[in-house]
Amino acid sequence: MNDHDGCIILNMLNGIGGSRANALIEFCGSVSAIFESDAASLARIRGISSELAERILRWRDNVELDRELEIARNGGVTILCRTDDEYPAALRELRDAPLCIYMRGSLPADLDVRSISIVGTRNASNYGARMARHLSESAAYGGWTTISGLAIGIDTIVHQATVDAGGKTVAVLGGGLAKLHPVENLDLARAIIRSGGAVISEFPMTTAPTRHTFPMRNRIIAGLSCGTLVIEAGVNSGSLITAAQALEQGRHVFAVPGEADNPSAAGCNTLIKQGAKLVMNFDDILDEFDFLPGFHPAALRETSVSPFGADGAQGEPDTIDDSMFSEEETAILNVLAKGPANVDTISEAANIPPSTVISTMIGLEILHRVRKNPDGTYSKKR
Question: What is the mean pLDDT of the segment spanning 324-337?
Fold first, then answer.
């Protein structure tokens, strides 16, 4: 077995995510070596139970590799694995990088320097639709690739506007490429591919999208781009998860302001209040990037430069007066002062809804007052 096929097999096995795959590869030395190990050895790896070790070695009982490869081949799909040179460089940086990327079409070569993820509500207002269209067209005219999730609403507008403007766009799905959702966007997906973009997914070909797979794809939407722009999102919007992922990955975060009394704009306005860059036109995004040698976004991610640029939006956290924190922020910091905690624990201890905890945590991360730990908990930084 080669490493390429081994990645596909691991990706198709239930219970193997990015973190466990990393542990397996580190322990065994390579993907192919995993399948040459014995169950007792694999079970010594943290996070790998005896049952899971047996399932890995008896993968043929649960995975039809030849059928998967045939479905992909018949659909014109290329499978990029983490061990392949063609695998997107930006995604390699992720702690839980996908084992595989299923791709129809082609990824633009300059994603690491000229790409912007644009996400937002599924119930776009006329204003939100207009801003999404305008900013996507501007990105396309400027030679930037747009990235979104092909969902109804802002996502659809972003992809369609980019294609109409002659630009390239990438759609990241929450299910397998053979289960494209929503089906109403099938023609749009074909147009994306014809225009030089791509439709991609980390999920095996026939995986149906679920409420669990959509949040998973958000880290890819954020990870592929130089920054994430949120247009019209409520406080419970999944777009805020994408913004949080972008922040955690060291990318820029942008938001389009909305009416103060419009619930659909509350998420964006909160992001701006907490330090995200306010965007009224595409020049506001370009202002955050300096393309002098050594200063393109890929290089910036390897330095301590603030993901919000050099304008002080995030800088000098020591100068922030704790009295300026909101009631929710203060309550969360008080909980974390007692030790690391996850969202549910914080929610219960602070008597704050989990959705509010998540959105508030974004601002606290921006201000360098909390950090997200590898196990998903949060800690107070000081």
Answer: 83
Structure-block tokens of residue 333: 């910091």
Query: Could you give the C-alpha distances from 51 to 22, 55, 57, in angstroms and in order?
Result: 18, 6, 10
- The domain spans of the chain are 3-91, 105-300, 317-380
The CATH fold of domain 105-300: Rossmann fold (3.40.50)
Most confidently modeled range among 235-239, 317-321, 333-337: 333-337
Q: Which helix (H) or strand (E) holds 255?
A: strand 252-256
**pLDDT tens for residues 131-158?**
999 999 999 998 999 999 999 999 999 9
Which region, left, alpha or beta, applies to residue 312 given φ > 0 means left and ψ of -120 to 50 means alpha?
left
Q: Looking at domain 3-91, which CATH architecture does it have?
A: Orthogonal Bundle (1.10)
Q: Output the pTM of the full model.
A: 0.77
> Does the domain formed by 317-380 have CATH 3.30.565.10?
no
Residue 147 neighbours by CB distance under 10 Å: 33
Better-scored residue on pLDDT, 246 or 306:
246
Percent of the chain as helix, strand, coil, to the nearest 5: 45, 10, 40
